[in-house]
Amino acid sequence: MWPRWIVLAFACATLAADNRAAPVATRMRHLLLHLGHGIELRVDDLSGRLVSTTAGPPVFDDVKSYVVEIDAARVAMTPESLTNLMNNYVFASDDAPIKKLKITIEGNELKQSGVLRKAIPIPFTMRGTIAVTPDGKIRIHPSALKAAGFLSKRVLDFFGLELEKLVKTTTTPAVTVQDDDLLLDPERLLPPPAIRGRLTRVWIERGLLVEQFGGEPRKAIAPADNRYTNYMYYRGGTLRFGKLTMTDADLLLVDDDPKDVFDFSPADYEKQLIAGYSKNTPAHGLIVHMPDYDDLLRRGSAARHERADR
């Protein structure tokens, strides 16, 4: 039989592991998430959970302290945000293989132009179709490719110059090249907070790149008060924000201006928190009303201009 102190130590370790693993269920609807670097992610609907990356609970003030584990979600990005994502984040390092990238949408295809970093910089343009690989990556397959302004895909193919030989992505883990196809890993593509989920579909709709994760949510949570349409809701587990720690979390962040999407910054949310107000619910939950993040930026800019004019 094991000594009593070993049994107690094992029980405490197991309990601590269980506490670390306790997720916070989440539901997000009608959001525009500012992820920094000029990147905006539109969230139509998302259900999943926050999973801590540390020994403690998820901390709102530290976007690296948790992962958003997705059961089901539909999200989208504009070509401008895709351009900023690639230039300012994915290919931001000095040794990145592609620079000065610009992404636009033409019909059901992505058009990309930029510069390949070789011994001599090579400008290129590429149009490509999009699809999902069996393991949940975004596949961009070129339907037309020109390098140096005049070498077409047909000429490059003739000389055996596949995209894989032209572009080396060893320094960019979110992007790999397979023959002529670019493969984008959605779990590595975005700035924190990191996401974890299975991409099941990708398509172009109304000038946006749209992604579907998972299928239809089976047990998606929703706030008890159904008046709110634009919100972030957190339920269960432990959640920390500022100096507060909420156990058995029941936190609802709502848009103070529901006429448009809820503009929110995960990394800079405190400004929205300070500018908003909160109230307790009969079930001991908390509802926080917040102004849109871009409204705060405009107010700050207007105030600076007003002071400068005095």
Walk me through what this model shows.
The protein is 22% helix and 43% strand. With 310 residues, the protein is α+β, with helices and mostly antiparallel strands. The protein folds into two domains: 19-28 and 44-64 and 215-300, no CATH class; 79-185, no CATH class. β1 and β2 form a beta hairpin. The radius of gyration is 23 Å and the shape is elongated. The model is unreliable at 5-19, 154-166 and 302-309 (pLDDT under 50).
Terminal Cα span: 81 Å
Query: How much helix is in the residues?
Result: 10-25%
Spatial extent as radius of gyration: 23 Å
Sheet/helix structural class: alpha+beta
Concise summary:
The chain is α+β, with helices and mostly antiparallel strands and 310 residues long.
What labels would you give this structure?
alpha+beta; disordered C terminus; 310 residues; 7-stranded antiparallel beta sheet; elongated; 11-stranded mixed beta sheet
How is the topology of this model organized?
Layout: H1 4-21, E1 24-34, E2 40-52, E3 66-77, H2 79-90, E4 98-106, E5 109-116, E6 122-132, E7 138-147, E8 151-152, H3 153-158, H4 163-166, E9 175-178, E10 181-184, H5 186-189, E11 194-196, E12 199-205, E13 208-214, E14 231-235, E15 238-241, E16 244-247, E17 250-255, E18 262-264, H6 269-275, E19 277-280, E20 286-290, H7 293-309
Parallel strand pairs: 1-18, 3-11, 17-20
Antiparallel strand pairs: 1-2, 1-14, 2-3, 3-13, 4-5, 5-6, 6-7, 7-8, 7-10, 9-10, 12-13, 14-17, 15-16, 19-20
